[in-house]
Request: fold
Amino acid sequence: MVTLYDYLDSGNGYKIRLLLAQLQQRYNWVELDILANETRTPGFLAKNPNGRIPALELADGTCVAESNAILWYLAEGSPFIPDDRLARAQVLQWMFFEQYSHEPYIATSRFWLQHKPDSPEKSALLASKRDGGWAALKIMEEHLAKNNFFVGNYSIADIALFAYTHVAHEGGFPLDDFPRIQAWIEGVKAQPGFVSMI
Amino acid sequence: MVTLYDYLDSGNGYKIRLLLAQLQQRYNWVELDILANETRTPGFLAKNPNGRIPALELADGTCVAESNAILWYLAEGSPFIPDDRLARAQVLQWMFFEQYSHEPYIATSRFWLQHKPDSPEKSALLASKRDGGWAALKIMEEHLAKNNFFVGNYSIADIALFAYTHVAHEGGFPLDDFPRIQAWIEGVKAQPGFVSMI
Reply:
């Protein structure tokens, strides 16, 4: 059985929990407190030298890191990754968009709002994240004008983007002006095997 | 024939040029001046709503964006992506590492050093990128202690990481203390069909 190293409030970790539930795959779950630096111990750094959750440990002890690479590993051969070559690349396109143009703005703002005391540094960081976060949501809204899901049917591209988008308001990005994103969120929640984040 | 929208000095664009050369695949090349906002015109935003190069336009007009998704699209079925399921996930792991933990530090520092006038903002940004850039290089150096390439034989994981690592000194990250990265750079340069960045 695989073991997921995770932190309950992490959207990146939730991606894996959601896919595993929808694959009906059992797993061991180990929570590490990122606030107490439990991902920076020698033991965990031997599993993932980048010191981040989620990490998926396979039965033979091999670890796969990076949430979207873990999604790909688990979903290969399932309906959660399309068969078509172009569609597969488009799934990856949205997953790289998520990690480069979405998560660093929306998830980072959410983390600072939830966990950091008020300070000039916090104010400056949050201010620096506004334009990028809104830009990512605008791109998603426009894409969803012509698509129910990001690439064809529901896929790991939707899982990757759902994780931090459905809690974007907790990062200071309420979705009131994004009706198509709201409809897509309901579409994801209606998928078989859906589980909520916490 | 495919068309690559690109900017000559972009490492992200260079990834695609290098792979296309090694695949011996011909392509049209269109340079857009990112400094003159040529990636923000309505015409280009219709191709890539995220307004970034590289973007690969297929013969039917479909565009694929995100450098590492383009690499995956072009390399599927070639020796530049391994066949094994775990190895494929590890290739993606290093490519997500590159976009999240490497490029935002090293490539961004290089861009600001090359293109932005001195200012307190520039100094603050460069300072904020130091720890992350060195951390990424340290993780690469440790991995290369036991591996000639990032996942098995030379793959698109190496191409993705090579692009900004071999010019890391231009971002203020000289590689003198990273002998294994230096050896790996020579190993990449020795691959058949290698082309340099500029």
Residues 85-115 of chain A form the longest helix (31 residues). Helices of chain A lie at 11-22, 42-47, 67-75, 85-115, 120-128, 130-144, 156-165, 179-189.
